[in-house]
Amino acid sequence: MAITTDRSDILGWGADLDRANRPAVPMERTPARLEGAREGEPAQQAVTVEVLHSVEKPGITPVFGTSNPPRGLSGWMRRRAFRRSESDIRHWMMLLAADRVNVVEGLLADARKSPGARSAAIVCAGVLVGAWWMRRR
């Protein structure tokens, strides 16, 4: 039994076929450029809250999020984390820990605002303390 390399009997075989016979030709074209698209960087967003940025990059990016500015203990932890390089594991571990602290701060803020949420916050805090207590044994 001889092995042949001739595949001409397979319908549609070959990437070098005539473009009219290639099934992917409609997707191979370059899309048209958007009309009116701006070239370059967008205008700098106004800074109304504290914005943390990497020590590797000078200044802040032109557009950034302001929904959760750093505040409280979690904000202090984030400020300390951003003093370190992004290649340092302590930078990322401090940011993760700050996220967890921010959750507890949110629970306490909810408990302070409404009596209904106070009981839920107490239950959540109890679960957290119980989990911590069980893990240390």
How would a textbook summarize the main sheet? none
Any low-confidence stretches, pLDDT <50, length ≥5? none
The end-to-end span amounts to 71 Å
| Range of strand content | under 5%
Average pLDDT rating: 80
Query: How would the global form be characterised?
Result: elongated
Helix content: 40-55%
Structural class: mainly alpha
Task: Tell how many strands the DSSP assignment holds.
Answer: 0
Count of DSSP H/I helices: 3
Radius of gyration: 29 Å
**Succession of helices and strands:** HHH
Describe this structure in words.
The chain is mostly helical and 137 residues long. The protein has a domain at 70-137. Helix content is 41%, strand content 0%. It has helices spanning 72-81, 89-113, 115-135.
Concise summary:
The chain has 137 residues and is mainly alpha-helical.
Features:
3 helices; 137 residues; 41% helix; mainly alpha
What is the topology?
Blueprint: H1 72-81, H2 89-113, H3 115-135
